[in-house]
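Late entry, written up from scratch paper. The run itself happened at the end of the previous shift, but nothing got recorded in the book at the time, so transcribing now.
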Amino acid sequence: MITENCEVTVLCVTYNQVSYLRKALDSILSQETNFGYEVIVHDDVSNDGTLEIIKEYERKYPGVIRLIIETENQYSKGIDFIAPIIRNYACGKYIALCEGDDFWIDNKKLQIQRDAMLENPNCDMCACWGCTVTEDGKNEVSQIRPINHDGILSTEEVILGGGQYLVSAGLFFKKSMYDDLYGMDSLDYSLQIRGSIKGGIYYIDRKMAVYRRYSKGSWTNAVLKKSDVLEKQWEKEKYLLSTFDRYTDYSFHDVIEERLKSYTTFDSQLETFTDEIHDILSQSVHPIIIWGMGRRGVSLERYLKNNSFQIDGICDAINEHIGEKTPLGTPIVSTNMALTNGKTILASNNYAYEYIIGEKPIGKVIACQKYMPYG
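Output as recorded:
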């Protein structure tokens, strides 16, 4: 590892992630580059042993790992601590992100992204193909892959895509981007929008970054599982879009108005397609199985139950709790059972649909994300 002539600063933000942090740091420190890079680790008052791990790595990699240790939790105060770190502490010309529960799976990631930035000087940011995995990191749950080839993602595409359009651990951008955030903060969504303004985001279709779903301390665990917190998150995003709209003299007003439609629940979105869904299911053959137990899958289950549709089972790629029932009383079945016995499979999202089709199920597969397009 080279630290002289530091060209890239990797920012690793962590809070109570003792079970995951070593994998994150090892994936960062294993990067092979022909330039110098540093790692700034920010701890937001962890109390589970995370801090001890950070200090251990600092001793092992002196001059490479730099620590910022808070005495009061910044996240709970709603403080944007990312911007001051990047502006005042980062030495690199470029910034890469990898939170304490995420990790990289390609030891050429930094080199590839830095080279891509040099080859595309009009871009302030580049991103890569990523995936989400189960908390233990063993099973892929979904892909975060906006397109299936290298290319430029426009501001309009980024706005419509929302905060989960790109994997946060795959973001790589110019430090100078922070000179003007157009009145926005350091939310992933804000960064992606800001990173697209100058010349779009250069996307690299190579899987290099991983996000843990519902891990302790993760955004999905803190926000997506709690409806009241999710609503507050939506209010933040609507505010940042309105702010960005004003700062850019309403240059993206139409697409922002379109994106604002997305801040409705999946249940409400499903209701607008009631007639079409009823026609499809009235002609479907049992057993009918929902594939997916994430937010879309649970919303689909609840919607169908509320509308008196019989569902014979629900499954998930994780294949846990087989034989038990969901809180709504739906039997949890295996994915193998769905593929070999399900006469109708309701794929809750596009990734699930593509996977199921590839497995050649015996039954009919219905893509349901089109009834929940926003989210």
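Residues 227-247 form the longest helix (21 residues).
(Scratch paper discarded after transcription.)
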